[in-house]
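User: Okay, second chain of the day. Same drill as before: sequence in, structure tokens out.
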Amino acid sequence: MKMDFEVYLWPGYTAEDILSLEDMAGIDMAVVMPQVQERCDNEGLARAIAGHDRLIGCCCPNPNYGAEALEEFRRGIKEWGLKGLKLMAMRQNYFIDSAVVDPLMREARELGIPVTIHSGGSPCHPTAIGNLAGRYPEVSIIMDHAGYPGHTDAAVEAALAHPNIWLGTTRIAFEPEFVRTAVNAVGPERVVFGSNGPSIWPDLALESIRRLELGEEAERLIFGENLARIYGIA
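Assistant: Same drill. Structure tokens below.
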């Protein structure tokens, strides 16, 4: 089974549009996130993908809203059927390792929910994501973009220091030697395929990594098995 850990439901796109993109890549299941803004339409996402078993919804609350964000996350998981948490400090204006994130991380730990975190420079530098991972070692964290473009070395260091961090291939796939470096450093068991669709076509992102010729076992892990384990999919 092939899986994509990150695709967005942009305005004007439907669940069927997302599935068509994934079909072009031969991808069986995808984690879908709402368009990121100050306050994401997480409930709308849940409605849009309802009934599509191949799509897994991911909630993106803004932790700056405190108790309201926490309640939205709880409802997303318990009432709306979402299965993951996305933290987007760059767009929502907070530092990823600050205390404002702790209530959501504690809830993710309590509910057994994996967390995808956008990485880059401040306020979501890979070292800061490592700090957060160290506070919540029980929480599975996918580091979106693996620090690309300017902080891939720090992303690898964070993943080596914290075994609950997986490195995501979104965007980095288009300079695939960075993916090879990550695989060589942390092993294929700790790298997860994501396309960042629809801004990037999933089939092109997948083919970019496939051309590295990492081997059948590594591809099986990166393109699906790792994410299936993170999300508890048999």
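The first helix runs from residue 15 to 25.

User: Thanks, on to the next one.
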